[in-house]
Every structure is written in structure tokens, then in C-alpha cells.
Amino acid sequence: MDQRIDPRTGFCTENSTFYSKRKPISLPSNESLDVTTFISSQPHHGNVAFIDSASGRHLTYSQLWSAVDSVASSLSDMGIKKGQVILILSPNSIFFPIVCLSVMSLGAIITTTNPLNTTSEISKQIGDSKPVLAFTTRALLPKLEKSNLNIILIDGDEDSNLGKMMRKKPGERRMRERVNQDDTATLLYSSGTTGASKGVVSSHKNIIAMVQNISRRFSEPNQRFICTVPMFHIYGLAGFATGLLASGTTIIVLSKFEMDEMLSAIVKYRATHLPLVPPIMVGMVNNADRIKLHYDLGSLRAVFCSGAPLSREVIEGFLEKYPSLTILQGYGLTETAGAGSSTDSLEESRRYGTAGLLSPSTEAKIVDPETGMALSVNLPGELWLRGLTIMKGYFGNVEATATTLDSEGWLKTGDLCYIDDDGFIFVVDRLKELIKYKGYQVAPAELEALLLSHPEIADAAVIPFPDEEAGQVPMAYVVRKGGSSLAEAAVMDFVATQVAPFKRVRRVSFVTSIPKNPSGKILRKDLIKLAASKI
To answer: Which positions, given as ranges, span the membrane (predicted)?
Structure first.
């Protein structure tokens, strides 16, 4: 490490930049390389790549790469060329990665959409990304009926369009266009938790760097991952449709999340790793006695949680119920191909509330939002990231790209963070979500963590509520635990005794659940809309 860089914090005083303490990643020297070829060329001893949890159908690695080659050949015969966009609208399945890998091997661009999206939301994305072809299931076909797109069905039976393509022998004289690492591989739409959804353009280089990041973290032999997180999301696409394949991992695919189905799959397939989002982790803590009575989770070695930093209460509560497991965490954005920071051991995760150390070959700045000045250790400001996984920009949106990516390649994350004395990142809140109370800034995440420590509160979210005198006041949406009759005044009193007066919760509304996106982030804009409708 450079002598000007503090080995403990990773901070360089000369340029006010934090450097990753992890071993750096080196990109392949061959510039003419697509991510599919990169993954398939990695040496590993894995046998089974994917197992369908419901049917037990599995794909070995040799079957996977044969299928990818056949589907890519079929797409090429259909006239699909480098640079064209292909849409996939599908729940998780063992066929989802085949489509993605086939498309990217041709230099074509994969764009994904949430099966829960409305027809109009999907139409809007189609209008923006302009795909030439769509892959979907029979059940989801009605959502594409008005799109006028050519459609390939990917249902699991052998008579489906995809089934026939997978059995086709690849053309021997097929001409492949040269794909470079800088070419676009994916066009994923950000969750839009703080504004309109935007198309994030990531290159083959971005995804290759992310694949290396993941395969290095999970490189032990005989790993079996449960996949419940959606493959259309960067969390699922980077991990389960690409990254883990480079280390020979077996991935057990559930088409959707259902707690008992997930637990049954762990038992049946002797899963070793379980990726979660915080709400599912909390559910496993609250239902631990029933779970341990009906399910033998002895094969599990680790849970990996992403979406929001875990509190002391959640970490220790989970370890008390499941003492043999290691908790790993991660922080990333669609704009960073899912990379950013991670905890790679239980010891690191026990630095409560942290998002971990910077990902390999990633640099960070903490920038004062008011002055634009780069800050030092333990001072909160906006987190800026730079590295191999940072997106090329927003699709067809020069203005949004210019406000998010600066000329030196720094991505402005919009997250208010600080980095501590040992180089660990702590996310304070989303900058755009800070509540402005009489000039004071109040972080919703701080109040939410406090509310979740209440013995009668199962879940909570805090939003800004308009107020003539104060500008905004903190309002809490609270989910009571079963059997609780907790009152509004009791919630406000609980917070008031533990925070400064300007941070006090001034309004409370009880709900049955908190709306969240697939990665577990609270959809505050939905709650703000709900609150506004009742004014």
C-alpha cells in the first residue's frame, strides 16, 4: 500500500480519498472479452450449476454452457446483433441465467423487469430501452401483449420456444462479432426509491469485475446457495445469474420467496449459504422456535444479508437463535453493479451497523453536501465511489448522468455515510430522505433503528410529514408485534426519552406491513404518498 495511505483507515491525506483494504482485482488483459466467455473459462470443480427447487430438475455446468451456446446460436440465426436490447420478464428460474448469458455472449444487451410491474410500467421501460425481442413465461404473456415485440417463451417444458433453442446444435460456421470489455452488457432499471426509475448502463468490464469480487468471496468447494432474491435485480443478477458460476457453486432456485418453501429447500438440498434481506432475517429470528422444531438447518454455514445495515439487536438476536451460522453483509447499488462494500467475516459484521470495508479496487470519498469539500475519518457526508464496477451512465439521460457521475469517474451515491478509524463504512441515511425539522437534519434510519429496539414493534419506517411551523416533522409507520396494543403516545414517548428534541417522532400510524423493494429497502415514497392522501 502507498506510504501516504493510512493502513488502518485506508485514507490518503494528500487527495482526501479512502482506498480499499481488500486485495485488488486485476481485469483480464484481453480487451476483446465478453462476461459469458470470462465466466465459462474460469477453472473450478463444480458439477451441478442450477437446481429447480420445486421440481428437482438440475443443470450441470456442461449442460449449462451447452445450452448457452445453443441459445446464442439460435439468437444469432434470428438476426440478433451486438448492441441490440433483449428484454426478460420472468420470475426466478434455472432458465433465466441461460437467457442472460446467451444474450451477453453475442454483445447484445440484457434488460430485466420486475414480474410484479404493471403493464404500463413495463410499457414505459420498453419505450425507453427499445428491445427487439422479449423472453417471458406464459403466465406473464398478457403484460407484453400490446408491446408488438417478438416473444420467446421460457417455460420449463421441452416444447417451449427456449426448450427447442436449447436442443438446437450450434451453427458451426457462425460468425461472432467482436465484443470488447467496454461494450454494454446490461441495462438494469434502478429501483427508483427516491425518484423516477432510470436505466443503468453497465459494461462487460463492470460485470467481470463484480464476478471476480463475488467468486473471490465465495470460493470454497461444495457451496450450495439458496436463491430467493430476484434475478431481475442487480443483487440476483450479479450473484446468481453470473458471479457465483465462476466458482463452481450450486444454486438452488426458488421462483419466489415463501418462508417455508425456502426452509424446506435448505433441508432437501443441504444448502450451505442463504442470501437474505433484513425483513426475512428478522422473520427467522421471530419464528426461530417453530423453524427449529420443523426444519433441520444443520447444513447451513452462513447467511448473507444486503439491502440495509443490520443493527446490534438483529445480529445478536439471530446469532442467539442460530449460533452455528456466520453473518455476512454487503452494500451496493445498481449503479455499481452491486459492489461497494462488504463484511467478509462474523467479526467484521459484529461492528454493528456497518456496511463493511470497501470492495476490492474501489475508492471512496466522503463529501460535505453543502461545501463540496472531501472529508476525513468519522465525519458524515455523501459517499462517492470510483472503481471497476461503476456504471457507464444512465441510458439516454445525459442530465441524470452528469449530476451523478463527475468528470473524474466519481459516482455520487446519494447516501449519507462516514468511514471510521478502521476503514468501515456506516450508512447514516439517504441524502434525499433526510427530514428537515426547523433547519435541523433528522435521519429516518436512526429513528427506525430505535423503534425496532422496542419489544412490541415488529417493523417501522419514518418519513417527513409537512408541517407549517417546522417545515417537516418525523412521522413513524409502525407494525405492531402479534398481540400488542401499543398506542401512538407510547411510541412517541419511547423515542422522546432517547433522542434530542428535534428528532422526536411527532406522528404515528399503525400498519400491517412496511412497503419495501426486492432488496429490502423501504419504499418511503409510497408511505409519503399514503400520508399525503390523509392530510
So the answer is: 85-110, 232-254
